[in-house]
Write a structure and sequence with these properties.
Blueprint (H helix, E strand, L loop, with lengths): L12 H31 L4 H24 L2 H6 L1 H13 L1 H4 L1 E3 L2 E6 L4 E2 L1 H4 L1 H13 L4 H16 L4 H17 L4 H21 L1 H11 L10 H13 L10 H6 L8 H31 L7 H25 L17 H19 L6 H6 L2
Antiparallel strand pairs: 1-2, 2-3
Helix pairs in contact: 1-2, 1-14, 1-16, 2-16, 4-7, 7-8, 7-9, 7-15, 8-9, 9-15, 10-11, 12-14, 14-15, 15-16
């Protein structure tokens, strides 16, 4: 008798190899970018040693979190998402009572030996909660309410940059998860109206917009930051000033190792260094996007991977846009590059869940299918 027809479409050998090596490639790329960022911190601080050693510790902790999160079965995440979300909400809503205020923003817990920023740490739980809601076909208004429950405590800090990332992640998930623009459009229009009203009623927000549009009007005040970003980037030319010689970033840029990380990177390593960094980010995002297209993924895992790709891409775009003078200042870190334990560990946790989702795929082996009587 002839062998039975294979009713399961066989997965290509390239996809099988990619899935088998995904964990190692994703972790290696993320940690490689993190070590690249460590050099940027050394170059962008006059007191390099303490911050560099702390960031090296952040990278080590992030590596452990990535590996640990990747080994947890994805079914555990999807089944325990209500409990994980409640824990995350407790951290976010507890900030007004127990939070530590830095630069006018109450977004950290001061643990004595370190400060923890919950909004960075719980991004993975946020994306997974929305992914599970989509798979379980929760009504759109409840999905919107769930997103608002996450975003409102971040807005109250106030941290508008991170809130924009969370909101962008929601829009990306709804659209890629099968949502319709007709449902999102009223939400986007309402948000634009609220943002316009906020800017109109808060002078400091107006100054940021004015500084972005007309930086020369107040070069020593509201336009200072944008001018220094341009000078630092221009000083890097093609090949940069090399490690330890980022004088402009060191002296004139506010937070050169965090909010102004790309400008510091450009001054240190020049155009080709930035091109190499953006290529590494592109490779990281393409791995996540390709993983979302693999066969046999749990549906919430597939949506999570798409949201993870979009959310990281949005944050990279906003940080780079601000540093290049294409967007108003938002105060967002560059993922895996900017100094900060919460940012690095939160991104590592996000990628650990992505690895867990890929490890949960269930694709029949082609040879086993052919042997089925």
């Amino acid at each position: 008798m002839n062998a039975p027809e294979n009713t399961h479409p066989a997965e290509s050998p390239a996809n099988r190899r990619f899935a088998a090596n995904f964990s190692l490639m994703l972790a290696g790329t993320a940690l490689g970018i993190g070590l690249f960022g460590l050099l940027n911190i050394i170059s962008g601080t006059s007191s390099a040693s303490p911050l560099a050693w702390r960031q090296l510790l952040h990278i080590a902790v992030g590596a452990g979190v990535l590996v640990a999160a990747g080994t947890v079965p994805f079914r555990f995440y999807s089944e325990q998402i209500p409990a994980l979300s409640i824990l995350a909400f407790a951290l976010l809503f507890g900030l007004p009572l127990c939070g530590h205020r830095i630069n006018g923003m109450c977004g950290w817990y001061d643990l004595g030996f370190c400060s923890v920023q919950p909004s960075e740490l719980v991004k993975g739980i946020y994306l997974l909660s929305l992914s599970c809601a989509l798979v379980r076909q929760v009504r759109f208004r409840w999905q919107l309410g769930l997103a608002a429950l996450w975003i409102l405590p971040i807005l109250s800090q106030p941290d508008f940059g991170t809130a924009a990332i969370y909101l962008g992640g929601f829009v990306i998930l709804i659209y890629l998860g099968g949502g319709q623009w007709r449902k999102l459009l009223p939400v986007i229009i309402s948000i634009c109206g609220i943002a316009a009203a906020f800017i109109w009623t808060h002078p400091y927000a107006q100054k940021r917009i004015t500084a972005f549009l007309f930086p020369e009007q107040d070069p020593l005040g509201s336009g200072w930051h944008l001018r220094q970003l341009k000078f630092a980037i221009a000083r890097g030319h093609l090949f940069g000033t090399k490690l330890g010689n980022a004088v402009w970033s060191n002296v004139y840029l506010p937070l050169p190792y965090n909010d102004s990380a790309l400008a510091t990177f450009a001054e240190t390593l020049g155009f080709f260094g930035v091109l190499l960094l953006l290529t590494a980010f592109w490779f990281l995002l393409m791995m996540l996007a390709r993983a979302a297209l693999l066969k046999g993924l749990p549906q919430e895992g597939r949506i999570f991977l798409m949201g993870c790709t979009g959310m990281l891409a949005l944050q990279i775009f906003l940080h780079c846009g601000v540093n290049l003078g294409l967007l108003p200042a938002t105060g967002l870190p560059l993922p895996l590059i900017s100094y900060g334990g919460s940012s690095f560990v939160g991104t590592a946790f996000l990628m650990g869940i992505a690895i867990s989702a890929v490890n949960a795929r269930n694709v029949p082996d082609a040879d086993a299918v052919l042997r089925t009587p």
